């Protein structure tokens, strides 16, 4: 029955050549499809060839046919999962049947007149793992099935058709208003990782190499091109495996070893070669085989298999880049929303800063480096948007809402309007805050509150002026270490600290020494897996055991502050002996600098973070040892309530506005007053207006927060009567009325006094 089967592999090649000729003819999209189905039917010697295209509403519409009733084109329709065609689309698998009507899914469309055909071969039309339609051939003769090579050949043709559908122009040939699945709006309910709203166009971080040359001239040359690319790919994997930093066992090594296994996989290589022999270029073959695999595996929910699929995707991308070369990142697009599976912080910094208005990740967590950097740059981020990479095309309209975590790909006009309003509202609000920037940070009853900002990277520094912060209350020095792939040298550390002090001018800066370990892992530091990392080998525990690391940092901090004032603070202090040891180290470094003739800081203040509840019972001796303290409420809260701050199931179970926690904070303020030691707070709660109001009511006069929070907090402050609040809050805390949250009281107070929160 089929010509393709009779002649070795030249059959599909002739068909491909004809299709290629057709592709360059100046035809309307519909006319081209009509010709293509005719060509396929002729070359495969089938009586029927039909193409069904998937619409946005999940309906497969007959778009072109040779052999079925021509009057049924655009009228014959099946739902996803309905009939043989719907089953192929839903499962992304081909069906090859000798007797179509015997298949349990068979339904027939009377308008097409297909009841007389028995043999049936249908293949999904796939692009980047997405089903765009179904291509079918049918014959009357029963009792035989299409040979395997023929099914392969039809899949190859389907790939060319997928590119045609993606190229557009087909929409108009159906009824007005019909949209194809490729342009369907899709929404994801991801995780909010960095606040803000981004409205723009998709930039795929790893652009799918859109294979522009599909047809090969000579299969042998192409097979050898493929072979060479595979050899280079394998060699590069071996090379990476041999490098020193992956020589040890570890996750990185495990991933590379999986790559190595895949790159040697005979089945994979055989499928690639087969596609080339059917007429595709090496790159088109990689794309086709990958697309088939992705479509089949995407339906599986096994996380292990899905992870392996990602590995295979990465490998195929590497191979494509090997064959075509890296495509530009599309740097010139304005309002770019970068869409990626995941990425490193440095890769984000490679983009032109002003052009990025959002980031969407399939993975990503609040503490991942790229998210920390994005937050510093003020880029809205949504994470855990599973599947977005394969659904998005470069240039698609997209909205990312970093407040809710929602992502809208190709949004409908109403959604766009809604977000445009939201964006306008936020811009107005920002403008209002900006006008508060130079207003003194005084409450309505003239209590001065120092509003400072948290920072950690050079990119944060412009915020010092823009936000109107009075200083940097927490400089997280570990961020420099986290975004680097190797340990920052002493010189690099000193350079950063100098730049920070230069930018701050007269404003005070509190540098916190390295707070690594726990969830802040430095890959180059050597790291052992711990059962309870938050309670593990971290911060000062690690620093005091590795004095070389801490001494280098202290030296860099002291040298950067030569002749000027600086403040150094130690994280995660648990025991007074740790303060003593840390202070000794500073003293030794100061003496060393003097000995070598370096200028030392004109004034040095030493402080500690209160993050571990044990310190609450040694406040008096602690205060005597220090110039200031700052409460790390994120960690203090986690240890106080025994609740993992990064675990979404429990993180919000307890309230930081509850009576016991506020009483603990008040005890610290009172101890500070007794010893005349300033007490600040630099955890996230300082940036929430209602919580900041409570802190001020408890007696805090210095709080430090993410720069975008300074505006809303100042708006709250200027409307606040601190005296009145303190009185009511103290009475409430001391009344012994349960141990619940004071949230409702604070909300009521704010409403009564018209305080924005
Ligand atoms: C804290 O724990 O509150 C804090 C400010 O430190 P980090 O969030 O960096 O642990
Ligand atoms: Mg902390």
Task: Describe the model.
- The protein contains 27 helices and 22 strands.
- It has 757 residues and is an alpha/beta fold.
- The chain folds into 4 domains: 172 residues, 2-Layer Sandwich (Beta-Lactamase); 120 residues, 3-Layer(bba) Sandwich (Glucose Oxidase, domain 1); 106 residues, Enzyme I, Chain A, domain 2; 317 residues, TIM Barrel.
- Helix 6 runs antiparallel to helix 8.
- The longest helix is centred in the first third of the chain and has 24 residues.
- It starts with a helix and ends in a 5-residue tail after the last helix.
- 43% of the residues are buried.
- The protein binds phosphoenolpyruvate and magnesium ion.
- The site of phosphoenolpyruvate has 10 residues, from strand 16 and helix 22.
């Amino acid at each position: 029955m089929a010509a393709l089967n009779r002649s070795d592999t030249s059959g599909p090649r002739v068909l491909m050549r004809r299709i290629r000729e057709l592709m360059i003819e100046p035809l309307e999209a519909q006319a081209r499809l009509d010709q293509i189905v005719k060509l396929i039917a002729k070359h495969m010697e089938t009586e029927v060839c039909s193409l069904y295209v998937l619409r946005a509403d999940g309906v497969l519409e007959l778009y072109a046919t040779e052999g079925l009733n021509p009057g049924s084109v655009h009228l014959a329709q099946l739902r996803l999962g309905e009939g043989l065609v719907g089953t192929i689309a839903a499962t992304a698998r081909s069906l090859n049947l000798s007797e179509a009507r015997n298949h349990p899914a068979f339904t027939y469309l009377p308008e097409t007149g297909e009841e007389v055909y028995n043999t049936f071969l249908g293949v999904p039309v796939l692009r980047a793992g997405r089903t765009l339609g179904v291509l079918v051939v049918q014959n009357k003769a029963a009792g035989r099935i299409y040979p395997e090579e023929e099914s392969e050949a039809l899949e190859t043709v389907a790939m060319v058709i997928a590119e045609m559908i993606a190229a557009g122009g087909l929409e108009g040939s159906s009824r007005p208003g019909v949209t194809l699945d490729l342009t369907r709006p899709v929404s994801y309910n991801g995780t909010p990782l960095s606040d803000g709203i981004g409205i723009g166009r998709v930039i795929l971080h790893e652009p799918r190499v859109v294979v522009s040359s599909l047809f090969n001239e000579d299969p042998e040359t192409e097979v050898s091109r493929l072979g060479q690319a595979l050899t280079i790919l394998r060699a590069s994997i071996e090379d990476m495996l041999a490098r020193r930093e992956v020589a040890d066992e570890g996750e990185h090594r495990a991933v590379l070893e999986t790559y190595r296994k895949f790159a040697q996989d005979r089945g994979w290589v055989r499928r690639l070669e087969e596609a080339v022999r059917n007429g595709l270029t090496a790159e088109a073959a990689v794309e086709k085989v990958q697309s088939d695999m992705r479509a089949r595996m995407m339906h599986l929910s096994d996380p292990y298999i899905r992870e392996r699929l990602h590995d295979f995707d990465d490998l195929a991308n590497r191979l494509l880049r090997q064959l075509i070369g890296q495509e530009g990142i599309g740097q010139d697009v304005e309002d770019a929303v970068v869409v990626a599976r995941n990425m490193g912080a440095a890769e984000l910094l490679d983009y032109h800063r002003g052009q990025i208005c959002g980031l969407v990740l399939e993975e990503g967590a609040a503490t991942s480096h790229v998210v920390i950097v994005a937050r510093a740059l003020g880029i809205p981020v949504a994470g855990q948007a599973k599947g977005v990479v394969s659904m998005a095309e470069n240039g698609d309209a997209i909205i990312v809402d970093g407040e809710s975590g929602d992502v809208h790909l190709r949004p409908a006009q109403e959604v766009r309007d809604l977000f445009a309003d939201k964006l306008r509202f936020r811009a107005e609000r920002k403008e209002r805050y900006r006008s508060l920037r130079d207003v003194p940070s005084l409450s309505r009853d003239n209590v001065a509150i120092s509003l400072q900002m948290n920072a950690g990277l050079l990119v944060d520094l412009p915020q010092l002026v823009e936000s109107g912060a009075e200083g940097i209350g927490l400089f997280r020095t570990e961020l420099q270490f986290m975004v680097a792939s190797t340990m920052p040298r002493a010189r690099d550390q000193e350079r950063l600290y100098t730049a920070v002090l230069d930018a701050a001018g007269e404003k005070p800066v509190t540098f916190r020494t390295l707070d690594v370990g726990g969830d802040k892992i430095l890959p180059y530091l050597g790291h052992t897996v711990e059962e309870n990392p938050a309670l593990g080998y971290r911060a000062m525990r690690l620093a005091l055991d590795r004095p070389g690391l801490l001494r280098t940092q202290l030296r860099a901090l002291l040298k950067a502050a030569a002749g000027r004032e600086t403040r150094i603070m130690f994280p995660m202090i648990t025991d007074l002996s740790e303060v003593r040891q840390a202070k000794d180290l500073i003293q030794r470094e100061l003496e060393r600098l003097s000995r070598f003739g370096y200028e030392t800081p004109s004034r040095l203040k030493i402080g500690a973070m209160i993050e571990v509840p044990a310190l609450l019972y040694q406040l008096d001796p602690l205060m005597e040892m220090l110039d200031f303290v700052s409460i790390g409420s994120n960690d203090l809260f986690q240890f106080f309530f025994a609740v993992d701050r990064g675990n979404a199931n429990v993180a919000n179970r307890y309230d930081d506005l509850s009576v016991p926690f506020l009483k603990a904070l008040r005890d610290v303020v009172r101890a500070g007053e007794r010893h005349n030691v300033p007490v600040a707070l630099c955890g996230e709660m300082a940036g929430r207006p209602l919580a900041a109001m409570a802190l001020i009511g408890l007696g805090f006069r210095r709080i430090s927060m993410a720069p975008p929070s300074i505006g809303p907090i100042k708006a709250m402050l200027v409307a606040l009567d601190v005296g009145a609040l303190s009185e009511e809050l103290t009475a409430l805390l001391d009344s012994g009325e349960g141990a619940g949250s004071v949230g409702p009281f604070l909300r009521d107070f704010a409403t009564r006094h018209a305080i924005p929160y």
